[in-house]
Amino acid sequence: MPIDQYYILPLLWLLICLLRRIEADTQFSTLNFPKDSHEGFARVNMSFPTLSCVSLCVRVQWDTEWNEVSTIFSYASPVFTNEFQLRGQVDMRERILLALIIHGKHLPYKASFPNDGAWHHICVTWNRTSGQWAIYVDGERKDMGSGTDTSKDIHGDGIFILGQDQDSFGGNFTEPFFGNMTDLNIWNMSLETMHASALNACSTMTQELLFSWNLNLLSIHPHIILQDNCSASG
Ligand SMILES: *[C@@H]1O[C@H](CO)[C@@H](O)[C@H](O)[C@H]1NC(C)=O
Ligand SMILES: *[C@@H]1O[C@H](CO)[C@@H](O)[C@H](O)[C@H]1NC(C)=O
Ligand SMILES: *[C@@H]1O[C@H](CO)[C@@H](O)[C@H](O)[C@H]1NC(C)=O
Ligand SMILES: *[C@@H]1O[C@H](CO)[C@@H](O)[C@H](O)[C@H]1NC(C)=O
Ligand SMILES: *[C@@H]1O[C@H](CO)[C@@H](O)[C@H](O)[C@H]1NC(C)=O
Ligand SMILES: *[C@@H]1O[C@H](CO)[C@@H](O)[C@H](O)[C@H]1NC(C)=O
Questions:
Q1: Ligand 2 neighbour 231 (Cβ under 6 A)
Q2: Which residue among 14, 80, 83, 140 is the one 20 to 30 A from 151 at the CA level?
Q3: Residue closest by Cα to atom 13 of ligand 3
Q4: Best residue among 14, 29, 32 to mutate for probing ligand 4, ranked by most atoms within 8 Å of CB
Q5: Which residues lie across from 75 on neighbouring strands?
Q6: What domains can be seen in the chain, in order of their start residue?
Q7: Which UniProt keywords apply (predicted)?
Q8: CA distances from 200 to 9, 136, 139 (A)
């Protein structure tokens, strides 16, 4: 079997990150969203400020067998349910296509990565001043655009859910994600390619950090399986 660089590289980055985290003596666990439950989710237990600028990165391992729309995260605000969201779906060419929703506007499914079961690093960003958004995969910008609604910020005091879409504020979950997720970080700034690329290679970036991966700040549904340091590297 030929060694597929697209499979090996993400795995290598993950292992390097893992070792750095273990060195730093911090927690590095992954969430497994199993397909035998459609109810799994994790809620980020923090209070969100109003955001004129936001960036978010997460590592995902997609279930290669799942063909439906899958929600990586959904952020609902009390005044608007589809405030900020990232979803993905497999296409005919066996790639996972990603799309952002900002203030309810569904942007195109275009940024993609192969449906290869490997870990992939995804970053998304939006800046109200410029109206620009972007999606980065494995450290490269795969899609960007403008023309989002810049008349308002992303509302604060919202509910942030990993792995489910919210059809009502904090409830009526639909379009689940299946697979593994880890290393979610959220910033109130716009990421550039150099940041996404450095983060993919496991640099840390502490300026303007709102949330940094920490199981103690997640409320995790009992159907989610936690994998700790050791099994994540196995
Ligand atoms: C991960 O490893 C660190 C350092 O060895 C340890 O402190 C932490 O408890 C581990 N986390 C889990 C979930 O096992
Ligand atoms: C969420 O955070 C608040 C404030 O830090 C805390 O009081 C509460 O117990 C946390 N809830 C969960 C489920 O972790
Ligand atoms: C949420 O689900 C409940 C129970 O199925 C239903 O009665 C309600 O209309 C739903 N709400 C929304 C906003 O979809
Ligand atoms: C998630 O991680 C577990 C443990 O490493 C692995 O067995 C499983 O295949 C992974 N799931 C997917 C969809 O890759
Ligand atoms: C938003 O974009 C503007 C224009 O490109 C830039 O000057 C500003 O620094 C960005 N804001 C943040 C918080 O990154
Ligand atoms: C980002 O959040 C931090 C911490 O809440 C705050 O100090 C900083 O001013 C915020 N930056 C922007 C650009 O909103």
A1: no
A2: 140
A3: 168
A4: 32
A5: 84, 160
A6: 5-233 (2.60.120.200)
A7: Calcium, Disulfide bond, Glycoprotein, Metal-binding, Signal
A8: 10, 10, 5
Whether 180 lines ligand 4, by a CB cut-off of 6 Å, is yes
Taking residue 167's Cβ as centre, other Cβ atoms within 10 Å add up to 14
pLDDT digits (tens, 9 = 90+) for 179-201: 999 999 999 999 999 999 999 98
Q: In the chain, which stretches have pLDDT less than 50?
A: 1, 25, 230-234
Q: What is the model's pLDDT at position 84?
A: 98
Residue 176 is predicted with a pLDDT of: 98
CA of 18, nearest ligand number:
1
Nearby residues of 56 by Cβ (< 8 Å), 6 or more positions away: 73, 86, 123, 124, 125, 184, 185, 186, 187
pLDDT tens-digit series, residues 19-39: 776 655 455 789 999 999 999
DSSP 175: S
